[in-house]
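Usage example:
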Amino acid sequence: MVEAALAQCVPEPAGAAARLNEAMRYSLLDGGKRLRPILAIAACEAVGGRVEAALGLACAIEMIHTYSLIHDDLPCMDDDDFRRGRPSNHKVYGDAIATLAGDALLTDAFKVLVRMSAGGSPPAILETISELAGAAGSAGMVGGQTIDLMSEGKDLAIEQLEELHSKKTGALFAAAIRGGARLGGAAALQMESLDAYARLLGLAFQVVDDLLDVEGSQEAMGKQVRKDEARGKATYPAILGVERSREMARELQRGAHRALEGFGADAEPLRRIATFVVERKL
Amino acid sequence: MVEAALAQCVPEPAGAAARLNEAMRYSLLDGGKRLRPILAIAACEAVGGRVEAALGLACAIEMIHTYSLIHDDLPCMDDDDFRRGRPSNHKVYGDAIATLAGDALLTDAFKVLVRMSAGGSPPAILETISELAGAAGSAGMVGGQTIDLMSEGKDLAIEQLEELHSKKTGALFAAAIRGGARLGGAAALQMESLDAYARLLGLAFQVVDDLLDVEGSQEAMGKQVRKDEARGKATYPAILGVERSREMARELQRGAHRALEGFGADAEPLRRIATFVVERKL
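Running the assembly step on the lines above writes:
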């Protein structure tokens, strides 16, 4: 459902700016895990909402996530040549079109969110837009990427590493989960439990990401591995060691499951996502 | 009023991402003409709305305009070293932070728009967000910048040049004017007249921009001039000649004034802006 909806979010390449649409589609429709859209939908369903209520948010968040990958891979940023097993966007389309494709995915995401949410509660949609922009912007994801870039080669305390990741990846996870739940009609108490779930899940995701960079292969991951160490980036395995990091990930997963104790069978997808995030191999 | 509001739109530099906030403030608070915010406010007032109803849109549009200048100036794009009389963002903060500052201004703009519009009609605000994202995204400004980049060194027909500029600059002008009017409570007939005004004004702005690049000095303009010719960019003076272009700008100004004939004294600022756009020296 998400794949089909995403394919509708970027026009078919045509006209004088066809190359831009091609570049947008290249990165958006490349078979990512779609973890953030699925979280938005699962959170919506966990509170008894219909999938359709969260589908616009799901697509918008994946577009924003995709833009961030395109810009992060640019030579002036992390300078990555591969992403999801294929050459990164700028290796195919050049730096200028890659920058523009990222800009366009980010901008179009807000149009998609409004258009695909027609029929929902306008105040809830406005709050979701505001929260999404906050999570993706200077106080969230972009702020986290800034801290990440400026921390290279520096020793970080574990608290600083957590601040970095809560902004760089955690904020967008939380926006997916909170937004999906809000659009599904969540009650205030449900929101609180889902906040806890989101915080633990985001952290678990990052710890496992760091572990996979140490232990994974480029073949399985579809991107260069062992780059964190080469760049002098602070990671959980570097600070805590591999064994302690793996334990931490499992403990976070158990915490995420505990946060959902007040929910019934409708939250089963959220529980399985927490398990997947910790057990995944890519 | 716009300057004071913009200064509130980006947090004071603090914490680990302070450099990002500095870079955002450097370009946002640099004394631009604020033409788009003033258009949003003037359109709101022209239909009898209160200034405050359009102030969030005014700030959001200036943030989006500023991000586009930062990204356009990057080495991989137009590679401009000066902007508004000062070194461009990436010359001061480096390409990575400049890219992120642009990303953050674009993203935060949508949060600002929602937050500062509290109290307005939620459906009207949602429509304004959708239209703004459409005007700034792949089908608007970013699409226009793509066509601009891909047309360098090529001969463009006047129709292609108009398509380029209607996307690259016209769409955001129109979003400012239409959005300001909508948030001010415009009637459908007023919207139609303002659409015509916006189209003529946007085109006039671009013709004069091209003329200033030929005739202006770097000192007066605060940026490098005569770059269009050096880059083989299609311009109105190149296609029509200087005299014919100046005539065209004056004719567009008269057309913009005619489009406002149904409005009274409340539209006087919009009329004066059309005159300013054609008579300006920078």
